[in-house]
Amino acid sequence: LSLKFGDIGNLKGLVIRFLLTTSYYQLSVQNWFSLHRLQLLYNHSIQATFNATRIYAPSSYSYHCEHVSSLQRYDALLIPSSANDLSKLWEVTFIDFQIQGFNIQEGHFAYAKDCASFFSPAILMGMVMSLILLLVLAYALHMLIHLKSLDRHYECKASPAYFAQMKDNDMGDEKEPLRSSGSESYELRNQQFYKIYI
């Protein structure tokens, strides 16, 4: 797959060539394509060659990545093929890169397999937070299970107030004067009442 820039400023005669291969994998029971090599041609001569790593997808899919680059800060998916050639003099970076070499229908990309790793920083942070929340929940359940009843602290309650009923010696008298210093008191003798002081 070749991208020819034509006569655009300083890019006159520049061609970027993508060498794609396809293979059948029995484990996935389908064909996969991979970008094997990238070549930079200028005036019909190869200027630089980069080996591509980890750029692959099922043949019925396309491949997408935010950055495909030879620079380390972008994870360097393009590696110079040799230390002796001119590849080290070139820095290649594709932004919002998407490629599909086979099974193209109606000139549109198929569903894209993204290069983002499953363990991205955001996913790892989410997993760590989930683990912390699970630990807190497990500790709370442990404390609830081993919580002891507080009923035993209330077993020794004070006995309720008891007012003994007085025996009627004289049913005819409803009240009997009591002698006290300075005040006159009467005590009701009926069984339905308790002591009342006036």
UniProtKB/TrEMBL annotation:
It is a single-pass membrane protein. It comes from the Eukaryota. The chain crosses the membrane at residues 118-141. Residues 1-102 form the V-type proton ATPase subunit S1 luminal domain. GO terms for cellular component: bounding membrane of organelle; cytoplasmic vesicle membrane; endomembrane system; proton-transporting V-type ATPase complex. Keywords: Membrane, Transmembrane, Transmembrane helix. Belongs to the vacuolar ATPase subunit S1 family. InterPro entries: Ac45_acc_su (IPR008388), VAS1/VOA1_TM (IPR046756), VAS1_LD (IPR046755). Residues 117-154 form the V-type proton ATPase subunit S1/VOA1 transmembrane domain. Its main location: membrane. This is VAS1L protein. One of its GO terms (molecular function) is ATPase activator activity. It is found in: Membrane. GO terms for biological process: regulation of cellular pH. The keyword Transmembrane helix applies.
